[in-house]
Amino acid sequence: MVSDPSLNAVTKLTRTEFAVVRAYAQGMRPVDIANRYLVDPDEDEHLSEAQAIQRILALRDRLVQFALQHGQPEIASMFEALRARSDVGMTRRVDAVSALEQLGQSYPQPQHEVSLWFKPSLARRLAAANIRRIEDLTSLANRRGSSWWRAVPRIGAQSAEVITHWLVRQRAAMGAAAVNTYVLPPAAHARRDALVPLTLAPGMPYPVPLEHMLAPAANSAAGRTLGDDLAFVRAWLKDRAPHTHNSYRREAERLLLWNASRKKTLNALEVCDLEAYEEFLADPQPAAFWCGPSGARDRMHWRPFEGPLGTSSVAAALRVVRALLRALAKCGHLTNAPLIPRQAPATAPTALRLPSHQAAVEAFLAWLGEAGQGPRHRAALVAAQLMRSCGVPLSELAVLRCASLHSSGSGTILQRQGSRRLAVTIDISVQQALQAHWADRGWADMMPPAQAALLAPTERPDTTRGRNKSLEGVVAGYSASGLDQLLRSLWRRFCDQCGLPWEGFSPGQLRSRVGKA
Are residues 143 and 216 in the same domain? Predict the structure, then answer.
């Protein structure tokens, strides 16, 4: 593993480092201290005054964090200024350093702030994602599994490697509050056992995703019908847009696995079966077979569920099942599509279901377009306007190129992606927003290259993924997840400024049904 020292968790200072802080508190010249204790003979010949102070203050910051880890805020505040202004103050600081030196290595507690254990650059990124305490971090990792870091903006695989290794090392110290054993660093996934495809049949020892399901032999019990179900589902998913394909595939493979476990086929489903399936979605049992953390689909730890589905997720799953059964009936494989129980509407309204949500969205768009806003706001404005006026989903926005636009007598036309490839006329406000976004990317007075991404960030994080994207040049735009995070973060900032509730928002709620493919 490649370790970045700027990301490592804070640990107790060494005896030499304690000596450095003590000498500085006593008034020794920084250059003398650094050249005596901190010079690396293999790298440094001589340190300047500024370099010496910088290294000493870095040790001071670690000392402050070490004091806070041990519940000594008064000692931590004593070292904020570090240099004593009197003999009494000097003596107190020297005594405090000696007291801290006698303490052992501290251990993290669930209620500790992440800033007590990680360097500021990493702690800021975690706090920006509302991960402020160690318990928030372990809860996220246990909920999402080894891919927890994908839900945290600006946390890449290298940072995740460091954090996860640290969490794993704290299992003994944190007890029941520690991360579960299935949470592993990103590099460990390569060492997981590859998933072995299985025949779709009753009594499967473990579940497999759709692409790893094998059709049963035609001469086996229910072999022909289960094989027909598998072939039909794959044909039904073919040629769908990527986001829709992934969503429908997830629900279809859950239904196929559940049917197989009950020795049922799609064309044999009845109302009572679908009612039982609805109950199953709310509590998949046995959990050891059905549930597990999110992970790679080609590894043995894959499971169809992360846990029981909530009311809205059950309703969404049943909508996909209804669509599948309607398609089955349309093809003549199902005489009458059984009535699937519909969920009652959720009683707790989200922020965008309030009567004034339309006004809030309009105010959000106006806020994004204000003169003083930056490039991220202007990119978000284009995305929000295309979703709102043209019905373009995030998954499609991420793959649109400038070549998707062309002029006609009626105005500027956007050639949509997807199976229907709709052509939509975009209005003048969207055109103006696009031109402002392109100006941020260096095309103020010209049309961008045809192969350029329609939407792209002007700056990229200094991560492996960010650097790879930069190497791709103009073709590398926002990903769907990047646009999702951009709109969510700016919506929250807008709501904080306006005093509006931001909970319950998702970028999909900005999308109109006009021109929906």
Answer: no
Domain count along the chain:
4
CA–CA dist 439, 379 (Å, integer): 11
Q: How far apart are CA 350 and CA 279, in angstroms?
A: 25
Beta strands in 45-165 (DSSP E): none
Tokens describing residue 121: 């650059």
Final residue before a domain boundary, out of 128, 143, 177:
177
Quote the pTM value.
0.45
Max avg pLDDT among 158-162, 257-261, 397-401: 257-261
Taking the C-alpha atoms of residue 498 and residue 501, their distance in angstroms, rounded to an integer, is 9
Whole-number CA gyration radius for the chain: 29
Which alpha helices (H) appear in 103-156, and where do they start and end? 120-128, 134-144
Name the residue among 152, 175, 163, 147 with its Cα closest to residue 293.
147
Token pair for 58 = 């870095």
Query: 227: domain range?
Result: 198-330
Angle at 459 between CA 454 and CA 464, to 5 degrees: 100
Could you tell me if 256 and 375 lie in one domain?
no
Which pLDDT value is given to residue 389?
A: 85
Closest CA to 433 of 511, 379, 507: 379
> Would you place residue 251 in the very low, low, confident or very high pLDDT band (cuts 50, 70, 90)?
very high
From residue 339, alpha-carbon distances to 233, 319, 322, 455 in Å are: 20, 12, 9, 43
* Percent of the chain predicted with pLDDT > 90: 18
CB 507 within 8 A of CB 483: yes
What are the tens digits of pLDDT across the range 13-26? 667 777 877 887 77
